[in-house]
Design brief:
Elements (H helix, E strand, L loop, with lengths): L2 H12 L13 H21 L2 E9 L3 E3 L6 E9 L9 E3 L2 E3 L3 E10 L18 H15 L3 H19 L14
Antiparallel strand pairs: 1-6, 2-5, 3-6, 4-5
Length: about 180
Amino acid sequence: MQVNEILSRAASFLGLGDVTIQENSTDDRVSKLVNALGVAYVQLVTEYVHLEKEETVSIENGEKALSELSENFFDAVQLKDESGLSVRFRVRGGKLLAEDGTYRLRYYYAPSSFPEIGEEIEVPLLVSAELFARGVAAEYALENMMYEEASLFEKRYKDGLLNVLAPHKKASVRFGRWI
């Protein structure tokens, strides 16, 4: 998903039609929109839709430093041994604690940096650019003390997330015969 597209939609929602989204813009509103995008993005991937990764890790002396993982560790989901069985583990003090061996660690990670103009950001397919732009608009309005607008955008954003991310029952058509 393109950062420029999200920022343009958020600006449109906020009635900022005269804002041009460009790198090195001197417009204060653009920098506030980028900050709002960063806050909304971190909130989205840490509270609602986690970024997930699986890696092979080797544990020696009962511990593995989480700083050695390829992404910024946020929370552990599962640790499996070579045969695919779940293994007991703990996360404490920036270390993964388990018995010595080689395992597959599935974990959530946080983004390494805030998104910038002209970049692509990783957002799950279920969350559309328009929905995410509402979250950005809510953060922007809150930063600019537009409390009523912030409340309205946040409600629409959270309702949209709930609708998109809530599990739905599968619909099926029963087999029948027509005579």
